[in-house]
Write a structure and sequence with these properties.
Blueprint lengths: L20 E7 L2 E9 L4 E8 H4 L18 E10 L6 E6 L2 E9 L2 E4 L11 E5 L6
Antiparallel strand pairs: 1-2, 1-8, 2-3, 3-4, 4-5, 5-6, 6-7, 7-8
């Protein structure tokens, strides 16, 4: 009796290089001005990010600039890293404090601002092919 085993491969988990580039907020009318520019040196710059993403905590002393002023959108920069437990979870830090976690699903980076139990993220960013790597 001969038994042939075929291997199945699991989809590759995203690595840090898979997050480098420009991620733009998607809206019903197309791209919005909001974007994250993620660099390969583990830094990022955030432009026009909705306050509900950037200012998720009431501790304004550790929040990005503009949160204490209750602006609708804020600009800030900091460091990013992948979660050790899940490489699909991208964490954005400002002043060494966690601002928000983004969750990778294919070519999308989703942000939940109310509950993780929602069927879809509250905000979805997609990588800009012209601004990637």
């Amino acid at each position: 009796m001969t038994v042939a085993l075929t291997g199945c491969t699991l989809p590759a988990q995203p690595g840090p290089q898979d997050y480098v580039g420009t991620w733009r907020l998607q809206t019903a009318s197309g791209d919005a001005a909001a974007r994250f520019e993620v660099a390969d040196d583990n830094t990022y710059t955030a432009h026009d990010i909705p306050a509900s993403i950037a200012c998720g905590t009431e501790v304004y002393s550790g929040s990005p600039p503009g949160c204490a002023d209750h602006r609708d959108a804020v600009d800030f920069a900091g460091k990013w890293r992948l979660s050790e437990a899940d490489s699909k979870e991208l964490r954005f830090y400002f002043a060494d404090l966690l601002v928000r976690k983004g969750y990778r699903d294919g070519d999308e980076l989703g942000f939940y601002t109310r509950t993780l139990d929602a069927p879809r993220p509250d905000y979805v960013f997609t990588r800009d092919p012209s601004g990637s790597r």
